[in-house]
Amino acid sequence: MRAASRRSVGGAAAVAVALLLAGLLGGCSHSQTWQLLNITGVMPSLKFRLTDDAGHKVDANTYRGKIVLLYFGYTHCPDVCPTTMAKLTQVMHKLGNAARQVRVLFVTVDPKRDTPKVLQSYTHAFGPQFIGLRTNDDELRTLTKRYRVTYSRGKPDKHGNYEVTHSSAIFIFDGKGNVRLMARYDDQASAITHDLKQLINSG
Question: How far is residue 135's CA from residue 55's CA, in Å, rounded to a whole number?
Answer without folding.
Answer: 11
